[in-house]
Structures are given as structure tokens and as C-alpha cells.
Amino acid sequence: MLGNFTTTHPSHQPRDYVKKDRATEKESCMSLNLLLAFLWREWRDSPQMKSFFLHKMNSEFAELMRGKAASKLIEQITIQELSLGTSLTVITGATVMKIGTKDPLEVPQELDIALDREYSGGCHMAIQVDLVFNKSVYLAVKLVSLQGRARIQLSRHPLTHWSFAFYEIDISRENNEISFGLTLSKEIREDALGKTIVIETIVVDSPSYTAGVIAKDILVAVRWTQD
């Protein structure tokens, strides 16, 4: 019958986790990765999937256009090309960092999960930016590699919501230059969006060279959170 509500309780295994006042052991998530890879192969090229991402990106651009600085320079942003890449992010480990309840019989009010992620799928997007003084700019961005620890938080207070963000991780310039086959300018510019560094040289047949990166391209490290 409609209108009847029953109290929910966690099953036996989650109850045991709740009793531990510490983070859980790191999990490999291999079965989850295989499941997501299978679903991604089935859904990646579907009209519904591309429509979802286009709608999401257009919403982000519309919010950007509402800013005072952008509205004075930009008339319109048009997505010319969108590729979702060849693969999904691989979750190399997951740890439950916090369970927001001390009563094993209650469903948690807050949940924090740390995910170690690696991405090399090569998703890319090309946009055309129409400026107010009758000029246009064409910009293409390709995500070659993304690695780090991310945080997913689910909470019921003050209302039910979720958020996603990356943990702050110190990045070794030397290790990244060797891994990707490039050298970076020593000048780093930083603003509200993140850090930008000019690529000075590229090693032939390196991962960066294979991905189409060339000297004088700009490497952007973006601060990004999703609520």
C-alpha cells in the first residue's frame, strides 16, 4: 500500500564495518572494473550516452558564460567534436574512510570512500568560442593521462547529496617528465582554474608523442570538484 514506510537496516557485513572505528582495508575492485568495462563497451557509442555528456558539458559552459569576466568576452561556446575515449577510468583500489554512524543497526548518515584511479583512455573535445569582437577561437583538449586519489562523499545532511573531488597530492615534476617523455617550462602560472605549464620538448615515441602532444603545447592541471 502507498504511504506505508518501513525502517531500513544494513545487512550483516556492513554492520561489521560500522563497528570498526577506522578505515577499511584497501580493495582491488577488479570485479567492478570488469563490470564497468563491459557496460562501457555496450553504452559508449549510444545516442543516450553522448546526449548525456553533451548536456552536461553544455550546462558547464552555460554556467561559465554567466560569469562576469566570461560574459564580457564570449558570445557563444559550441562543441564541435566529442570523443569519450577508448576506455574508462581503472579503479586500482578503494578504501572506506568514514562511516557516519556508530550504531550498527542504523543506515549510515554519511559515507566517505577513497578511490585510487588511473585513466589513459584519451577522451577529447573540440570547441569553438565566438568572441564579442567578431572573432572565433578553436580549442581542442585531449586527456592523455589522469592518476590520483579521489574522494566520493555521500551524505544525508543537510539534505541528501553526493560530491566528488581529488585529494591534494604532491606531484614530482621529474618523475612525470621521465614517464611521459617531455620537459616542462620552469615557469608555472596559477589561477582559480588551476596551474598551466608550457611543454618545452618532446621525446620521439614517448607516450606524449604518441598521443599527439607537441612542443609549446600547454599542460593544464585543473582544480575540479563536482557536487
Automatic annotation (TrEMBL):
Entry GO terms, CC: mitochondria-associated endoplasmic reticulum membrane contact site; mitochondrion
Cited InterPro entries: PDZD8 (IPR039275), PDZD8_N (IPR058801)
CDD domains for the chain: SMP_PDZD8
Pfam families: PDZD8_N
Composition bias type Basic and acidic residues, residue spans: 13-22
Ranges of biased composition (kind: Polar residues): 1-11
Domain PDZD8 N-terminal: start-end pairs: 27-168
BP GO annotations: mitochondrial calcium ion homeostasis; mitochondrion-endoplasmic reticulum membrane tethering
Region (Disordered): 1-22
Entry protein name: PDZ domain-containing protein 8
Lineage: Eukaryota, Metazoa, Cnidaria, Anthozoa, Hexacorallia
